[in-house]
Design a protein that fits this description.
The chain is mainly β. It contains 3 helices and 11 strands; from the N terminus they run ααββββββββαβββ. The mean pLDDT is about 90. The structure holds fe (ii) ion (FE2).
Length: about 240
């Protein structure tokens, strides 16, 4: 991709290829011909604008935003971090959306028929907007591993899906966050679709500073939009 004024081209040393053949769905939807590069215009350099007013006060707390009769089951965790641009400057007013299965490894979605219980107090979706120093924070339940049929006995490592609306369409990011020390990571075709040197950018770090005593462990997951150290994009 040609360089666009103000943005570095996508770094293919960090990002998965469009076609990662070990991921069974990829050959069905990856482009089979070279991409057609359109000239960039104001459309690509601007994006939707979100502010703190756009989200409700419980939207960031997945342990409460869908609760009907009490707390959801599982290990309560805090996931927090900073969103920065490729020059390391924090970016305010970035909408982050997350979705994940419950502690048993099941999504609250009609397409998920995994033989594991739903949790009446957990939907598994939330959102928040970065503050003036680019910081975000979610409270949630540690997601369980789940089988996914990619190959015989295939299990996804615990992960949280992230979507970010950056300040332009070029900084739109959809990615996944993983947990440190998960033995399923080395078996996962999606995680392993990311070039080796960049995989750790997708693994959160346990943080005692983010943890709250007697209440919840904290994980630090920083996200960088575009550039050599950008968080790898899900393709
Ligand atoms: Fe998932």
């Amino acid at each position: 991709m040609p360089e666009i004024e103000g943005f570095s081209p996508r770094d293919w040393d960090s990002h998965p290829l469009n076609l990662s053949p070990d991921y069974k769905s990829a050959p069905l939807r990856a482009p089979k011909k070279p991409l057609v590069i359109f000239p960039q215009s104001l459309t690509e350099l601007t994006g939707p604008v979100f502010g703190q007013d756009a989200v409700g006060h419980l939207d960031h707390d997945l342990t409460k935003n869908a609760a009907r009769s009490g707390e959801p089951y599982g290990e309560r965790i805090i996931v927090a971090g900073t969103v920065k641009d490729e020059d390391g400057n924090p970016i305010p007013n970035i909408l982050l959306e997350v979705w994940q299965p419950n502690a048993a490894g099941r999504y609250d979605h009609a397409d998920d028929q995994h033989d594991a219980p739903l949790d009446p107090n957990f939907l598994g979706a939330g959102r928040c907007v970065t503050d003036q120093v680019g910081h975000y924070r979610f409270i949630t339940i540690k997601p369980g591993a789940y089988p996914w049929g990619n190959h015989f006995n295939a299990w996804r490592p615990s992960h949280i899906h992230f979507s970010l609306f950056g300040p332009s369409i070029l900084t739109r990011l959809v990615t996944q966050m993983y947990f440190p020390g998960d033995p399923l990571l080395e078996l996962d075709p999606i995680f392993n679709g990311v070039p080796t040197a960049a995989r750790n950018l997708l693994v959160a770090k346990l943080s005692i500073d983010i943890s709250e005593p007697e209440w919840a462990l904290g994980y630090d997951f920083n996200i960088q939009l575009r550039g050599r150290t950008a968080t790898p994009m899900e393709t």
